[in-house]
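input
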Amino acid sequence: MLRHDLFFFPAIRGKMNRKRGTRRLDLLFFPPNYRFPVYQIVMPTGDVTVNESKMIRFLKSALPVVGTVLGICLVMFLLSLLEKNSTFFQFWGTPANEIRADIANQAIRSTENFNWTFITLFALVVFIYASELKNRNFKGIVAALSLYGVHWLYEITNAIIQHATGYALWTVSPESTSFILLIGVSWELSLMFSVAGLALSKLLPEDPKKRLLGMNNRVLFAIANAAFFGFFEIFLAGTPAFIWTYTWWGAIPVFVTTYIPFFLAAFLMHDAKPKTQKWFLGIVWGSVALLLAVLIPLGII
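output
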């Protein structure tokens, strides 16, 4: 028979090695009636200093970004209260626009309003891309195609929403364009987005790692340009050319969920490694081509 004092009972004690900044867990085994352990097992549990410093660095880099975005949203919200009865600016959608949206839905890819500006604008965009290719501005072209590709994914999603619910998040009116490509994008608007990433990438600082206002300059420029486009869209929504029908959709969600991703795609891909650029453009534009090839014949978009 085993004697009671031959049994070993573990006791756990945690220690911090302050010199190295690491935490370890000691398993100490005590026989009954013994003050000192017979042996111990040291179990390291990770470098706390490194983990904590990474978290602090993340918070320091994220707080300026979050603060800037929230600040711009607050400004938009306050302006929406001040200009609630404005006839020039529209900060939120309204069901009163549903009749106009229904008319626009019947004009998708109609040639009734076609005019020769269609050709002229297309020629100008071709000239811009050809000039940049000749100057070997490949980073600018990548920025342009990145934004434009993400833009098309959004437009396809918007058209799917229109098919599923009856109304899109945003709609272009037929009288404002020579040709409606999808419910939310006209020919002229699409060509503008095709060069937006290229044009605005020329304003980026040379050093992609330079920090401004506590954040990476690419992120700051993405937020700033998204804010400019968001504020400008407040004016567009107040004109007959652009239509918002949902009361919860307006300047703030457009700024946060639409334009920030547009410009982040453009400016981050601008400095990405060539392999990453190829993968990103291949996935984005491959998805766009596949969705258009499938959804248009089915009548969904």
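quick obs: Residues 4-44 form one domain.
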